[in-house]
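User: Teach me something about this protein's shape.
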Amino acid sequence: MRKILQRAVEVGEVFAQANAFVKRFPGSRYWPDRQWDLAIVLDNSAQRGDNYDEFYERASWFYEAVTFSEAMKSTTPGLGQAYLGSYADAEGHWLDGGKSYTLHVPADVPAKLFWSATVYSVDTRCLVDNQQGRGDRGSRDPDLVVNEDGSVDLYYGPTAPVGKEPNWVQTIAGQHWFSYFRFYGPLEPYFDRTWKLGDIEPA
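Assistant: First, the predicted structure itself:
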């Protein structure tokens, strides 16, 4: 019995990872030509669809996170939040803590309040526990370097690119990671998808 239960834990963990990090839910890919998915694929806070319980959708989100409310999947411009998740780079490879990447955030991010891009550990689904002591960069950071056209370039990797430290988040070699891009008070260009976020690109 102990061996059976141990095996069940191992298989369940792999199932949870595949269900969360390679989403197969209809409509979960936000832009067809990007690696960004809707992080929350639940339809509502009851976690029930028409004539069925959203078991797989629930398992996906709650493997990654710990709470959910209607406001976290806003459908009203200017209110609530919207979460996109990226688990792979532009080429479809898992994000590797030992490699360097860039993320181009175009100007005029459709967020009424602010936006943030956060790095999480695949193993713990918590903020990356790095020596730098931070796991995200966003529009509230006073030292964030903004390009002349209003866009922002973010950097990820075990070491900072020279001169780019304010826009860098340290990742850890030997650990995989994923990112959430959050819109607080998402605006119409987010909902109609006319504003498009870049992929996380290998540097």
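Now, about its shape. The two ends are 48 Å apart (CA to CA). The mean pLDDT is 95. If you'd like, I can walk through any region in more detail.
User: That's plenty for now, thanks!
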